[in-house]
């Protein structure tokens, strides 16, 4: 069986978009939760409460690093060049210092400096209080984690659990991504999630727009569903667990790691290894689903959406029918009750991907401040959709098309709300937009 991954690296509805060159953006984010009912709130930290935290560098380190006695030898021997930075100039000169010390390859340092500039432009464009301080604080910690990853490379298992100590990578990701999302426009919220409390499995079949997608989902839902962010498991492509600028963020997510079809044949000598690795990951996923109470996010397109070359418009990329069907069969054969929902996500402008799929690791990373949107529609019944099909292949294609059609329809509503300025008025009979963090 083949599953297509997310690359970082939905109809609940939340939308986001941003680019480094953006000078203005829609001043809102939206959520539509029609598919799920209410879930008990656990691990609660509201968006508003988190946004009011003082994000100075030392408090970030203190909040994300446990006691000294639990610190690993790797952390103790690690350079503090970036954590000791007090100005932007200190941070940039630290890159040169680490290159000269032989701890940081020049190409990686160049990518880090580019990321800093783009992140700075995006956060400053938000107009938020202490924005410059937030940039220095968050980028100091990001640089520190990237340097640590180069000095002591981390290997991801087929099923990777988010690392919470001695350094809390999960909280680090949220602290870094939060300033890129515009939460300023407020409305009422509908009922969100259910089923976890009953041991059911939930799978979100979604499009995929940026490396920030998992954090965007968590942040847009945390006010009413804080349990989602810490427990969602993302099917992730190999690029987000090999790129040195991306790995620190991936370490903060629960990942089921697979090799994408799009990159399966990049190196013919590695094809067999990649296939075996994917088989191990599928076995891990099957084991998880058998235990019940799993929330899994998968993008069956096998990669991020790209704009239409002729119009520049963004739409959900086509889904791979085999990926959707394999996920369905895994859920059905798990022995635990399961539900599959079509989810649409609009957030490409926060961290837009390259215009075309690239083979080489080390893509140019643009960053922006923008409104965001996410939508989850009601569950689609396989038996209902395929009742008139004559064979398994026809049924597989019909179910895939039904899923993609729902994701695409939700996306159009999000696009109208966020990028065409209609806001809540873009709501339809099937996608009711709201803002739960108010």
UniProtKB/TrEMBL annotation:
Entry keyword annotation includes Iron: no
Primary localization class, coarse: plastid
Name the UniProt record assigns to this protein: Glycerol-3-phosphate acyltransferase, chloroplastic
GO biological process, one term: CDP-diacylglycerol biosynthetic process
Signal sequence segment: 1-19
Reaction(s) catalysed (UniProt annotation): sn-glycerol 3-phosphate + an acyl-CoA = a 1-acyl-sn-glycero-3-phosphate + CoA
Localization (cell): Plastid, Chloroplast stroma
């Amino acid at each position: 069986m083949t599953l297509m991954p997310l690359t970082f690296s939905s109809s609940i509805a939340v939308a986001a978009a941003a680019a480094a060159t953006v000078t203005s953006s829609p001043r809102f984010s939206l959520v539509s939760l029609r598919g799920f009912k209410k879930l008990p709130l656990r691990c609660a930290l509201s968006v508003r409460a988190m946004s009011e935290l003082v994000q100075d560098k030392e408090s970030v380190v203190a909040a994300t690093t446990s006691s000294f006695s639990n610190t690993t030898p790797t952390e103790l021997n690690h350079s503090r060049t970036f954590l000791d930075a007090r100005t932007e100039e200190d941070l940039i000169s630290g890159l040169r210092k680490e290159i000269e010390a032989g701890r940081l390859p020049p190409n990686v340092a160049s990518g880090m400096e580019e990321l800093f500039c783009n992140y700075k432009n995006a956060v400053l464009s938000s107009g938020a209080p202490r924005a410059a301080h937030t940039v220095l604080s968050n980028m100091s910690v990001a640089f520190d984690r990237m340097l640590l990853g180069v000095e002591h490379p981390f290997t991801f298992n087929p099923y990777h659990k988010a690392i919470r100590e001695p350094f809390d990578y999960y909280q680090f990701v949220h602290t870094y991504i939060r300033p890129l999302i515009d939460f300023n426009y407020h409305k009422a919220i509908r009922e969100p999630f259910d089923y976890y409390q009953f041991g059911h499995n939930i799978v979100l079949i979604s499009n995929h727009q940026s490396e920030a997608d998992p954090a965007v989902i968590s942040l847009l839902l945390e006010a009413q569903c804080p349990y989602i962010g810490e427990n969602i498991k993302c099917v992730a492509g190999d690029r987000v667990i090999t790129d040195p600028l991306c790995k620190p963020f991936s370490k903060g997510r629960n990942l089921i790691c697979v090799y994408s079809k799009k990159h399966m044949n990049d190196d013919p000598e590695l094809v067999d290894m990649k296939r075996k690795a994917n088989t191990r990951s599928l076995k891990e996923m099957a084991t998880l689903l058998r235990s019940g109470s799993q929330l899994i996010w998968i993008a069956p397109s096998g990669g991020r959406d790209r704009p239409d070359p002729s119009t520049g418009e963004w739409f959900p990329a086509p889904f791979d029918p085999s990926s959707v069907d394999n996920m369905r069969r895994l859920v059905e054969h798990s022995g635990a009750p399961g539900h599959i929902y079509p989810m649409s996500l609009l957030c490409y402008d926060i961290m837009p991907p390259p215009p075309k799929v690239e083979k080489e690791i080390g893509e140019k990373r643009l960053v922006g401040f923008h409104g965001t949107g996410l939508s989850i529609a009601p569950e689609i019944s396989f038996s209902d959709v395929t009742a008139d099909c004559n064979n398994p292949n026809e049924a597989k294609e019909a179910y895939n098309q039904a899923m993609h059609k729902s994701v695409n329809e939700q996306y159009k509503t999000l696009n109208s709300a966020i990028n065409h300025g209609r806001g809540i008025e873009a709501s339809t009979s099937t996608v009711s937009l709201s803002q739960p963090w108010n």
